[in-house]
């Protein structure tokens, strides 16, 4: 008995529909005046660039794993605790820096609940990683990472810290869970808060 050939594309899973709340959020930004409209357009353009290029399974998996290290500022807080444990003469400086990372994360979370911007979710470009909340602005990964880079740079070489912070922040756009402006705002917030915790 012969079986008819069925092209696999015909039965491929349809991409998930864009979140209506996310689309409403973007439309509201486009209606919010010339500056907000310009930022929103740049956001979507850069977001598409990072979501549509340089993606394959061999790269996405390590980026996901790396990005998860930044959830709730975990990797940066762990660095501060390890520094305090291993570097007794500078323990107080390590703890002060670690507290600034925690404060940046807490302040970021508060701002998210006030601004309530929804995460990007455009047709054909679903997010590649799950998130604790649906709120997007500012990016907690960016704020905690740049707070850590700024605060710990008095204790460790600055260049690898900032490279790690930038990679962590950009991973969130690459994985489709933040707009670039979320990252920029988070980086600015983190740098300001981290400066207060930087004991030279």
Protein model, in words:
- This protein has 200 residues and is mainly α.
- The protein is 64% helix and 0% strand.
- The protein has 8 helices and no strands.
Characteristics of this structure?
mainly alpha; disordered N terminus; 8 helices; 0% strand; 200 residues
* Strand residue percentage: under 5%
| Overall domain count | 1
Q: What is the CA–CA distance across the termini?
A: 80 Å
Radius of gyration: 20 Å
Summarize model confidence as the mean pLDDT: 84
Quickly count the helices. Answer: 8
Helix fraction by DSSP (H/I, runs of at least 4)? 55-70%
Pairing-aware structural class of the strands and helices? Answer: mainly alpha
Poorly predicted ranges (pLDDT <50, ≥5 residues)?
1-18
In short:
The chain has 8 helices and no strands.
SSE topology sketch:
Elements: H1 20-30, H2 34-52, H3 57-68, H4 74-86, H5 91-115, H6 140-152, H7 158-174, H8 180-196
């Amino acid at each position: 008995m012969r079986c008819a050939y069925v092209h696999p594309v015909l039965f491929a899973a349809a991409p998930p529909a864009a979140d209506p709340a996310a689309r409403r959020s973007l439309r509201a930004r486009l209606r919010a005046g010339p500056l907000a409209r310009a930022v929103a357009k740049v956001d979507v353009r850069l977001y598409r660039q990072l979501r549509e290029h340089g993606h394959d399974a061999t790269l996405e998996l390590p980026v996901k794993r790396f990005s998860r290290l930044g959830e709730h500022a975990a990797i940066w807080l762990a660095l501060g605790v390890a520094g305090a444990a291993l570097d007794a003469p500078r323990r107080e400086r390590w703890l002060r820096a670690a507290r600034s990372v925690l404060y940046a994360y807490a302040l970021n979370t508060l701002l998210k609940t006030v601004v309530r911007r929804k995460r990007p979710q455009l047709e054909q470009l679903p997010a590649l990683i799950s998130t604790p909340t649906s709120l997007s602005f500012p990016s907690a990964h960016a704020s905690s990472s740049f707070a850590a880079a700024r605060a710990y740079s008095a204790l460790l070489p600055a260049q690898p810290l900032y490279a790690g912070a930038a990679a962590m922040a950009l991973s969130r756009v690459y994985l489709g869970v933040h707009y670039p402006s979320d990252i920029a705002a988070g980086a600015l917030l983190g740098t300001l808060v981290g400066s207060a915790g930087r004991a030279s």
